[in-house]
Design a protein that fits this description.
This protein is 50% helix and 5% strand. The protein is built from four helices and two strands; from the N terminus they run αααββα.
Length: 127
């Protein structure tokens, strides 16, 4: 089993949405960047992403979820709205719990994987 790793993914989507977009790890990472830099542009740069792509991802996710994640202050940058902050917290908690569940199932069948951890964990993961 040490030759493999697993990834637990969480996606949040509105039930009534006809749009295929959702709130997932990419949107969460962008929002964390905005929290840190107070700028979608700087968050995108940090991720190695073009600003136009980050703006499109954010716009599509906001449309799909029916809420606004960012308060855009033009030249003064951006900050998370209360809705954006709440959904980000919900997402992070759900992702941590998904990882714990995946860890339990893998350990049940293969034992505790010592040493190599999966190369990807959620941003808030303390493990």
């Amino acid at each position: 089993m040490n030759d493999y790793f697993y990834i637990a993914r969480v996606r949040i989507q509105r039930k009534d949405s006809e749009i295929r977009e959702y709130f997932g790890r990419g949107v969460a990472d962008l929002l964390h960047g905005v929290e840190k830099y107070h700028s979608l542009n700087l968050a995108a740069q940090e991720m190695g992403m073009a600003y136009s792509k980050a703006w499109r991802i954010m716009r599509d996710a906001e449309t799909a979820m029916g809420m606004t994640f960012l308060h855009r202050m033009r030249r003064n940058g951006s900050e998370l709205t209360e809705e954006g902050r709440k959904l980000l917290s919900v997402y992070e908690e759900a992702e941590r719990e998904a990882w714990k569940a995946a860890d339990r199932v893998v350990e049940k069948y293969y034992g505790r994987l010592e040493g190599d951890k999966p190369p990807y964990k959620c941003a808030d993961s303390s493990e």
